[in-house]
Specification:
Layout (H helix, E strand, L loop, with lengths): L3 H26 L25 H5 L3 E5 L5 E7 L5 E6 L3 E2 L1 E9 L2 E10 L2 E11 L4 E8 L4 E9 L2 H6 L1
Antiparallel strand pairs: 1-2, 1-9, 2-3, 3-4, 5-6, 6-7, 7-8, 8-9
């Protein structure tokens, strides 16, 4: 029969082993201590401001956009002169958009949307607007998984908006 003290020692060793495994797992999933929102990819604007592309190019961003690989909706309600965007994100329920902005880089409009909600620890979209195809293309940075996914959004037109 095992003594009570020996039983406690074995239990403590198992707990320590489990804690070490949890720390290693945490470092693999959340490099940098889990503060994934503190180090988002940086998008720097050109010497031209977003407004030098003309208000028409920015207002073309306004609308509801559906991601091709699912029912994710990015609803851009307004783009301000300073490039800040009023937007909502649905999956299918609303996910908090902590920051959304449009900047220019190489003559292209780049849309950066940061999500901060349960299950969305600073996840971010970096999208380039393609005016000829009228779509947003780019990368979804999934902070929780430490992975990036190529994504594409197409504009929903009036008939499609009512079906959502």
């Amino acid at each position: 029969m095992m003594s009570k003290r020996r039983h406690l020692i074995i239990l403590a060793l198992w707990a320590a082993l489990l804690a070490m495994v949890a720390v290693v797992f945490w470092d693999l999933v959340f490099p940098g201590g889990g503060d994934t929102a503190a180090h988002p990819p940086q998008i720097q604007a050109d010497e031209r401001s977003a407004e030098t592309l003309g208000p028409q190019s920015l207002t073309r961003l306004v609308g509801r956009w559906r991601r091709h690989d699912g029912g994710y909706i990015l609803d851009i309600k307004a783009v301000h002169d300073d490039g800040m965007i009023d937007a909502t994100y649905l999956n299918p329920r609303p996910i908090h958009v902590s920051k959304a902005e449009a900047v220019t880089k190489g003559g292209h409009v780049i849309v950066v949307v940061t999500l901060q909600d349960r299950g969305y620890p600073g996840n971010m979209y970096t999208l380039t607007y393609d005016p000829q195809a009228d779509r947003l293309e780019g990368v979804y940075h999934h902070r929780g998984l430490g992975q990036q996914f190529d994504v594409e959004f197409s504009r929903l037109h009036s008939a499609q908006n009512t079906q959502e």
